[in-house]
Amino acid sequence: MKPKVYVTRLIPAVALKKLGESCDYRIWEGELAIPRDAVLREVPEVDGLISLLTDKIDGPVMDAAPRLRVISNMAVGFDNVDVPEATKRKIMVCNTPGVLTETTADFAFALLLAAARRVVEGERVVRARKWKTWGPMILLGQDVHHATLGIIGLGRIGAEVAKRGKGFDMKVVYYDTIRRSDLEEQLGVEFRDLKSLLADSDFVTIHCPLLPQTHHLIGEEQFKLMKNTAILVNSARGPIVDSKALYNALRNRQIAYAALDVTEPEPIPLDDPLLTLDNIVIAPHIASASVATRTKMAMMAVDNLLAGLKGERPPHIVNPEVLAK
Ligand code: DGY
Predict the structure, then answer these.
(1) Which of 43, 39, 23 is nearest to 304 (CA)?
(2) Residue minimizing CA distance to atom 3 of ligand 1
(3) Pocket of ligand 1 contains residue 53 by CB under 6 Å
(4) Which of 11, 179, 292, 306 pairs as cysteine with 298 (C-beta 3.0–4.6 A)?
């Protein structure tokens, strides 16, 4: 009998085809995230789950799925999965690192450029039929070239953003909990503690995972350290930034601008005060959204799942301790 798998949203067809060759799968075909009651209803018989960052996969979901052996999250981040609860139940948890690195770095840089050069504001002017003339004082932004770029989290994505910064002749500094001397030399980047990074940077871009230690890593105190001309970019996870403090910092011009691909919560509520500000650009969590990358992520999620279901070590398992005999 083929293993049973549940997929919590439509993913690229090529990945579903591969999954269907060795598993019986069902899929949530709704456009929005699967509601919790539907997850609980769908999982009792499943051996494997392909989940997304919009799905909270916690202890109660695992309790409802006594046969579950693999949770394959189609994302590099896995803060939506309660990994300790999975480990307790000997359920493998997998993610999709690597394949989205450059695509996500491209987008972080797109946000940085859009904020610095006020691209979205300019577009709004044109569409509002308010473009009346070329003007020496209209929509002046900030130069990216030769500015200082501060990267929080020099993992795979952070390192790719550093390369892009170097391509724009920026001075690149970084903060991480682990100092990366190898990358410092290779990429020409300098280590700073968080306070000096915030004080020195013209652009601060976040690339660390969401962990209890990074929750609201950037809040009121941190905004006070930043330059009034600074631009904050977040394409990691919304809760790393305290959004109330961000609102105050932007409104009081404590910092100049923010560009977000992630918010807390997601989607951002329509009455969120951030949406009343002009000095912010917000994208709907699309940093990895290229055709090629989403296809690779889906294939990787399927490959992880199939390996785990076959009793092999999945190529990208985040809790390998469950494999120990
Ligand atoms: C991830 O993979 O964690 C991104 O946020 C979505 O691609």
Answers:
(1) 23
(2) 77
(3) yes
(4) 11
Residues 120, 103, 284, 38, Cα dihedral to 10°: 170
Dist CA 230 CA 275 (whole Å)? 19
Global confidence as pTM: 0.96
Ligand 1 near 210 CB (within 6 A): no
Mutate which of 78, 288, 295, 296 for ligand 1? The one with the most ligand atoms within 8 Å of its CB, which is 288
Length of the chain: 325
Residues 193-217: tens digit of each pLDDT: 999 999 999 999 999 999 999 999 9
Interval 260-318: pLDDT, tens: 999 999 999 999 999 999 999 999 999 999 999 999 999 999 999 999 999 999 999 99
Beta bridge partners of 18: none
Across the chain, how many H-helices and E-strands are there?
12, 12
